[in-house]
Design brief:
single chain; 492 residues; alpha/beta; Rossmann fold; two-stranded antiparallel sheet; 13 helices; 14 strands; globular
């Protein structure tokens, strides 16, 4: 066989490569929410995201970029779809699929946990979610590229999707495509994101307006991080020590590790005042702090954290999160969770500064993984043999090149979006026991948003006695449903 023949065969093989197509499955279902029977349609599958291509300014067509996996719920029997709100949902990571908000909070089916949100005995199961938001809004759950079943198209490099800006662009382009494909441009539109998904949602508030002319009615932020400087314990950055302190106190209170006894809300008011008025100034003084000032701060820190004065002295008044997880209950041989500090873990030993794993993560990963993999095949009839990436490490390293030598901050994008669209409302949900994105850090960010006074009423905050995924706690789930429903009714 000549080289020319081989070349021709290679060309033929490339020509014969099948065209990347949408793969969608549609099913019908019903559920009772608030005493009302609802019939709804589920569309599950992958949709091909394409780019326009040109060569020397001569239009060539469209080139596939990626397959985006999504699950969409639409209420049947709606006469005017334009009157029906539409909510796009995603989680964070980076590297997380949308399964948590999907099967924990918003969707018509949810994973069964214990009432407190603890790990049930396997095998795990799903149940109808009487707290689903489907009675208020249609729902679209999006898995960013590299998570769930979403993958780059052949010839496209995965890393081009795995970065701050590229992620916002690709998710935003999917939202535009879905809105166009399903004729929802005139519907009231909402975003809901959790954790890094709040970073993404804040970025999308600007991208959708500026790139696609899409104005939103509302954004719902669950466990918020818009300023990474508030949560990253790096040398020279004093903010996290101050902003984590109230959640340290709430955690110690929950585990009966404090020598004082008062209602948690009363305690937190006291701790917040100390954090702002005494603790922050002490850290700012640094080595200029006098011996008497240092002793006074240590006494208060010990009172509010449950950690010994000696430990706090040796740690130079500064306790990063990973040390707190290990130290608080060291004498009991237990660690506390990062995502939800109500949950306890058991390490191999009681030595060391950090924990071997996060007990609040291992508490949820099993039930949600099993629940989704069964649900998507058995009930939604979508079949695919590749792994559904619940939490993918393949997206790392995640690029923050746009923020080189500075902390990631998306608060300014949100401020600009709210200024351009003064009708945009924002709901912020916080868990008291969240040691990943503490509530006091979130309050700090929104208190420093520099939002015009006329727009500050567009912000609303809610608090729940649970952690990062506060909806795993049934009482919190019930309250969240009420709060989110009221928000959508107000903002639509």
């Amino acid at each position: 066989m000549t080289e020319e023949t081989k070349t021709d065969e290679t060309k033929d093989e490339k020509k014969e490569k099948p065209e990347l197509k949408d793969h969608l499955v549609v099913t019908q279902h019903s559920i009772t929410i608030g005493g009302r029977e609802l019939h709804y349609t589920v569309t599950a599958g992958t949709i091909v995201l394409k780019d326009e291509t040109d060569r020397e300014k001569d239009y060539e067509g469209e080139k596939p970029r990626a397959q985006f996996f999504f699950v969409a719920y639409t209420l049947d029997g709606v006469e005017d779809p334009a009157s029906r709100p539409l909510t796009f949902s995603f989680n964070g990571g980076p590297g997380s699929s949308s399964v948590w908000l999907h099967l924990g909070l918003l969707g018509p089916r949810r994973v069964v946990m214990t009432e407190e949100g603890g790990l049930p005995k396997p095998p795990f199961r799903l149940t109808n979610n009487e707290f689903s938001l489907l009675d208020q809004t249609d729902l679209v759950f999006i898995d960013p590229v590299g998570t769930g079943y979403s993958r780059p198209a052949d010839g496209e490099k995965a890393k081009q999707f795995h970065g701050f800006t590229k992620d916002i662009q690709s998710v935003g382009d999917f939202i535009r495509l879905y809105t166009t494909r399903y004729n929802r441009w005139l519907s009231p539109k909402f975003l809901i994101g959790e954790s890094y998904g709040t970073t993404r949602a804040s970025g999308l508030s600007g991208y959708l307006q500026e790139r696609h002319g899409m104005y939103l009615n509302g954004i719902m932020l669950v466990s918020t991080v818009l300023d990474f400087g508030t949560i990253e314990f790096t040398p020279g950055n004093e903010l996290p020590y101050v902003l984590f302190l109230p959640t340290y106190a709430a955690t110690a209170w929950y585990h009966d590790a404090l020598s004082i006894h008062m209602p948690m809300q009363t305690l937190l008011v006291e701790v917040e005042q100390f954090a702002v008025n005494q603790y922050a100034p002490a850290l700012l003084k640094g080595d200029g702090l006098t011996a008497s000032e240092r002793s006074a701060v240590i006494r208060k820190l010990s009172r509010y954290t449950g950690l010994s004065a000696d430990y706090l002295d040796r740690s130079n008044l500064r306790v990063p999160d990973f040390r707190f997880f290990k130290e608080l209950l060291r004498r009991r041989g237990r660690t506390v969770g990062r995502l939800d500090s109500r949950f306890l873990g058991i390490d191999r030993d009681t030595l060391g500064e950090g924990t071997y794993n996060d007990p609040s993560y291992t508490n949820i990963i099993g039930p949600y993984t099993a629940g989704f993999n069964d649900y998507i095949r058995r009930e939604l009839k979508f079949e695919k043999d590749i792994p559904y990436e619940i939490i993918s490490s393949n997206v790392h390293p995640w690029s923050y090149a746009e923020h080189e030598n500075r902390f990631v901050y998306t608060g300014e994008t949100l401020r600009q979006a709210m200024t351009s669209n003064p009708h945009l409302k924002v709901f912020i949900a916080n868990g008291y026991y969240d040691l990943a994105t503490p509530y006091f850090a979130t309050e700090y960010v929104f208190n420093h948003l520099n939002l015009d006074e006329s727009l500050r009423g567009n912000l609303s905050m809610a608090y729940y006695e649970a952690g990062h995924m506060m909806y795993i706690h049934l009482p919190a789930l019930a309250q969240m449903k009420q709060d989110l429903a009221e928000f959508i009714q107000m903002a639509k």
